[in-house]
Amino acid sequence: MKTYKSKKTIGGSLSSGCKRWISILLLAFIITSCSDILDVDTPTLVDEEDLQDPAQAELLVRGAIADFESAFDTYILMGGVLGNELGDATFTASRWPVDRRTVVAADDVHPAYFSYSPLSTARWSADNIIDNLQQWTDQQVENRQSLLATAAAYSGYSHILLGEGFCTMAIDQSPELSREEVWEMAIEKFDLAIAEAQSSGNDEILNMAYVGRARANLNLGNTAAAASDAQQVDEGFSITMTASDASGRRQNSVFAEMNAQNITITEQFRDLEVQGEPDVRVPVVDENAAPAGVPVFTTPKYDSFGAEIPIARWEEAQLIIAEHEGGQTAVNIINDLRAEHGLPEFSSTDEQEIQDQVIEERQRELFLESHHLYDVTRYNLDLFPAPGTPFPNGGTYADQRCLPLPDVERDNNPNI
Questions:
Q1: Residue-wise over 323-352: b if at least 16 C-beta within 10 A, else e?
Q2: Whose CA, among 25, 61, 320, 381, lies 20 to 30 Å from 55?
Q3: Is residue 3 part of a domain?
Q4: What would the pLDDT profile of 118-150 be if each residue is shown by its tens digit?
């Protein structure tokens, strides 16, 4: 298997200072400060008719990537807090239901954690350009297949996160869908991405789609299919969400929230060790501060406003293989990944112990990368603090492991 060094497709994700918002109702979007993308120095407004213009294809795909990156950033926060990697450390009451695991459909979830609309927007914008690219021809659009592969891969990831974060879902005013139905849709998007990436020679998106399809199949319990895809991922592959120190619109929100002392690393992820040695994959710092009465712990894993967050990478694929294969194969994978960080080796011949360790390695290797929330459900992990424990700001912790479909969808969807 070759060693993979990531390169940026169609110029990569949006550069520093770029961010895109899309309004489904108005069918228009704004791209701000993207001088190196547009070769202009002023913001550019793309009119509604330009959404159907093949000359705008590359710009539309870049916009879909930007939509996903913004949504992914928010999902990391929501999933971290609901999934017990993070805890809320503020006086802001609208943030507490996510931390307390008591969100109801009518809740006006605080914008820091409200990932439904951003993810739905990202999913729609990717699917919209997919539909257009499938109608346009290679004569109309340069690199059409590569662009189509890219849009399909990002749509697939939007579907995955919508399924992992929400108990049920609706897509384009569909009837209420199960999580499994949403992941099946994700697989269809990744099928398209893989086919078009292979045809166009887009290795980065091909790897991304293999990891994404493996993740969707893992969620569905199809571990053999998941492992088969994971085997295709090039060693060293990684694709990340970009961020920027220079612009609040593109800042890493996990760092921004930690820097403002709005969130804290939960107790179960503090002071982790591997056979007596600190686990450098989960670095945690005690800030010796508690502005809202909650002790604040931060992580230098994301140490700046411009810190990138992995979306998909080879290490994730390796852990999927380990989960499926078990035995000495899993032990070898665990030790190969630990060796990257100079950590002691794991040794066991007990299959249950090996599987338990694979789960533990996922929590540490993929810390704050969007995986832990659904892993809590998939592996039936204990919640911390345990349900019934008093919540510091009133009430008790519940056992919620996914968010309900919000009323913003139910009130505007005639099919639910």
A1: bbbeeeebbebbeebbeeeebeebebeeee
A2: 25
A3: no
A4: 999 999 999 999 999 999 999 999 999 999 999
Number of domains in the chain: 1
Q: Which of 78, 77, 101, 370 is nearest to 211 (CA)?
A: 370
Looking at the domain assignment, is residue 167 inside a domain?
yes
Place of tokens 């450098």: 280
DSSP letters for 297-323: EE-TTS-STT--EEEEEHHHHHHHHHH
Task: Return d(Cα 316, Cα 35) in angstroms, integer.
Answer: 34
Q: Is residue 285 part of a domain?
A: yes
CB 127 within 8 A of CB 77: no
What CATH code is carried by the domain that includes residue 357?
1.25.40.390
pTM of the model: 0.89
2 assigned to some structural domain: no
CA distance 382 to 258: 25
Q: 360 Cβ partners below 8 Å, 6+ apart?
A: none
Containing structural domain, residue 150: 10-410
Q: Return d(Cα 129, Cα 172) in angstroms, integer.
A: 15
For the chain, helix, strand, coil in percent to 5 are 50, 10, 40
